[in-house]
Amino acid sequence: MNWGLIGASTIASEHVIGAIRANGHEIISVLSSDAVRGANYAARHGIARSTTSLDELLGTQGLDAVYISTTNEKHHPQALAAIAAGKHVLCEKPLAMTPAEAAEMVRAAEAAGVVFATNHHLRNAGTHLAIRELIASGRIGRVLSVRVFHAVHLPPHLQGWRINDAAAGGGVIPDITVHDADTVRFCLGEDPVDVVAKAGTSGMGLGVEDSVMSVWSMPSGAMVQAHESFTHRFAGSGIEVHGTEGSIFGRGVMTQKPVGEVELVTVDGRSAVPFGTHDLYARSLGVFAAAVAGEGRPSADGVDGVKSLAVAVAVREAARTGQTVRVNYEGF
């Protein structure tokens, strides 16, 4: 497959370019709003072309798919343009600024017959796949509760619009809560019904929230407690799943790297759970390419992106109003 990058981004530089090439694919063009930055980015990464024109990129001969990693408010129009041009799309989370916009993107892709996916990298981690399998196989019985702790320190080179630009989709909720929503959905196989939340600033946010805590109700009766932040240097991250017959402790697993540990605790004692240490993004791109070839579906498709965004939007609304907010999945 031949790919175009919509956005000369850090995440593409650090993770996705290598993952595309690890699957034997080519990157033939990159779009940047700044011509000089785009040309330098292309030269640095061995990409033949750079452009400031979305139409020019989408018209590149031989282009099969695009990866969108621009700021959040641009995802919706850029994805719709790519879909209209007949290109397969892998889009960064959150898919859009609202679940309604994200749903429009999904339905447009369905109508055009192209593959549309969300880059929820965590569900490609060996740790998360192992946790999901433990739950699905009944090793901990009926799930009673989940605790997700994803309070980290956002490094300076990733701050920028994420901490000060609400119009671009800044804030910890669209940046991290969407990941945790997808992780819970992936591991439990069910969607949150409603949420309560508190959000605020704890040292980094400038006009947007940098910390949030929320509780979600699941259809099964399980409860989920989630904590996300940009300001916690030493908190660590992880997920705990507690059931009637045991508990799962995933420590250091909410990360872009295949690291951390998973422990199962039952009446028989504690045991370390083995997991694959493959590259998360390489797996995601491989599954995406298989879906383009008609084999299965992406690891996180467009509907997954709609639903993770819907949970995040509900969390933000609950924090704003102090009320319990029902999650609106836009008909999905």
UniProtKB/TrEMBL annotation:
Residues 129-248 form the GFO/IDH/MocA-like oxidoreductase domain. It is an enzyme of class 1 (oxidoreductase). This is 1,5-anhydro-D-fructose reductase (1,5-anhydro-D-mannitol-forming). Gene3D superfamilies: Dihydrodipicolinate Reductase, domain 2, NAD(P)-binding Rossmann-like Domain. GO terms for molecular function: 1,5-anhydro-D-fructose reductase (1,5-anhydro-D-mannitol-forming) activity; nucleotide binding. Its EC number is 1.1.1.292. Pfam families: GFO_IDH_MocA, GFO_IDH_MocA_C3. It comes from the Bacteria. Transmembrane segments: none annotated. Coiled coil: none annotated. Residues 1-120 form the Gfo/Idh/MocA-like oxidoreductase N-terminal domain. Keywords: Oxidoreductase.
